Amino acid sequence: MKIVFIILGFIFVGLGCLGIPLPVLPTTPFLMLAAICFAKGSKRLDAWFKNTKLYKKHLESFVEKREMTLKTKLTILLTASAMLLFSFGMMQYKAMVNGNSVGLIIGRVMVLMMIPIKYVYFFTRIKTIPEEEVKDEEKTSA
Known about the structure:
The chain has 8 helices and 2 strands; from the N terminus they run H-H-H-H-H-E-H-H-E-H. The chain has 142 residues and is mainly α. The mean pLDDT is 84.
C-alpha cells in the first residue's frame, strides 16, 4: 500500500507543478494531497518533500500556522466549488438513468450545503495573510 501512496504523491506533485504556470489547475490542493501521500508512504520522501521550495512556498505557512493568502484560498475554494457543481449536475444524469428522484434531492441538498460551509470554514478558521508577508518570509529564508 505504501508504494501506491508514493506513486500518488509523485502524480500530485506533477499536477501541482503544472498548476503553477496553468491557471486552470490549482497548485495548493494537489501539493496538499502529495504531502499526505508522502507522509503515509515514506518518511524519507516526506522529509524530502518538506524541504523543497515548492512545499515551502505553497504549503508551509498553512501546515505550520494555519494561514493562507487570499489568492490561495480563492483558488482552492473556486476549484472545489466547480467540482461540487459538476457533481450537482451529474446527479441529474444519474437520477434519469436509475429513476431515483429521492436520491437526487438528498444528494443535491447535501452538495448545496457543502458549498457555503467550506467558504465559512476557510474564512473563519484559516487566517488570511497578505502576499507581501509570504514574499518577505521567502526572502528571509533564502
